[in-house]
Specification:
- The structure is a single chain.
- The chain is of the alpha/beta class and 299 residues long.
- It has 2 domains: 3-31 and 87-298, 3-Layer(aba) Sandwich (Rossmann fold), CATH 3.40.50; 39-85, no CATH class.
- It contains 10 helices and 13 strands.
- A 6-stranded mixed β-sheet has the order 7-6-5-8-9-12, with helices on both faces.
- Strand 10 and strand 11 form a beta hairpin.
- The protein is elongated and about 90 Å long.
């Protein structure tokens, strides 16, 4: 059975669903414009939690005046409250053709990671949208909140099919043009773009959201177990190449892969983005659990 033929129950079994039910996000500062939820907003208004005082100015809401202070000091102060709004979360899993190759395809771990992080947001009453991408980006689910959307999200992820080659500039360029409310963009990929790591960095720099990168890796990415004369097929474009794998070739490959990893880390650092690696050959939940050890992942 291929990855494209996996059912929702096989990809997200009951043990997996139970494990991710405890995940949730906690945003330090949330852009305004959403619905009231459990996140802290920058806006000081008439919400739920008291934060501060400030002096009254003409036009302020008289209902916010603290009359106890006025009686004691003869000065007019407003009570400021912290409003709570939802954190819009945009989940963008890489569904390029190469992600679905092999007996244990990267797409398996990628889609499970996508669901786990979407569930973390839905568990906290945040809105979640699904934007699978490859050479194009699709709007599979528009951002909505509500835990009732969890099974719909599971079905949408399980039904993803290979979409072609990876093109971060084109696909995430479209993401930047969607004019979505600023929130958290979660990009799940191996970040192998034929145009190089610079194309990945440029596409991410155009986003108006905070960013969390989930890098799907294998131990053999860094240190491939190959030797001899081989016919290798490019998993992105299908081109074949005759390669004699010598020590010199392996040394050159390891150097190139190290530069790739350093480039991705530098991109995350420059964008103040989170970066977590998920080994696709290991269970996903224990690896993501480290993000939520304190009960929530702070973004």
């Amino acid at each position: 059975m291929t990855m494209a033929e996996l059912t929702t129950q096989e990809l997200f079994d009951p043990a997996f669903l139970h494990a991710v039910s405890r995940f949730r996000f906690l945003a330090k500062r949330v852009a305004r414009g959403g619905v009231h939820a459990e996140q802290r907003s920058r806006h000081m208004g008439s919400g739920m939690e008291f934060r501060d005082y400030r002096g009254y100015v003409a036009g302020d809401d008289l209902r916010a005046i603290d009359w106890n202070i006025y009686r004691r000091l003869g000065r007019v102060f407003l009570r400021l409250f912290e409003e709570f709004e939802d954190l819009p979360v945009y989940v963008a899993p890489d569904v390029s053709r190469s992600m679905f190759l092999g007996e244990q395809p990267r797409a398996h771990a990628g889609l499970q990671s996508a669901y786990a992080l979407a569930a973390a947001a839905l568990n906290h009453h945040d809105s979640v949208g699904l934007y699978p991408f490859a050479e194009e980006l699709r709007v599979a689910m528009k951002p909505r909140s509500g835990r009732v959307r969890m099974m719909r999200m599971a079905h949408a992820l399980a039904n993803q099919k290979p979409m072609g080659t990876t093109d971060f500039k084109r696909s995430l360029g479209k993401m930047a043009r969607l004019n979505l409310r600023p929130g958290l963009l979660i990009v799940i990929s191996d970040f192998f773009d034929p145009q190089g790591i610079q194309a990945v960095r440029e596409s991410l720099s155009r986003q108006r959201h905070r960013i969390l990168l989930v890098q799907l890796v294998r131990k053999t990415d860094r240190d491939p177990d190959l030797s001899g004369d081989l016919l290798l097929r490019d998993c992105e474009n299908g081109q074949e190449h005759d390669v004699s794998v010598t020590n010199e070739v392996l040394t050159g490959y390891r150097r190139a892969y190290k530069e790739f990893e350093e480039g991705l880390h530098k991109a995350a650092l420059s964008l103040q983005a989170g970066l977590v690696q998920v080994d696709v050959d290991e269970p996903v939940v224990p690896q993501l659990s480290s993000l939520f050890e304190a009960g929530a992942f702070v973004v």
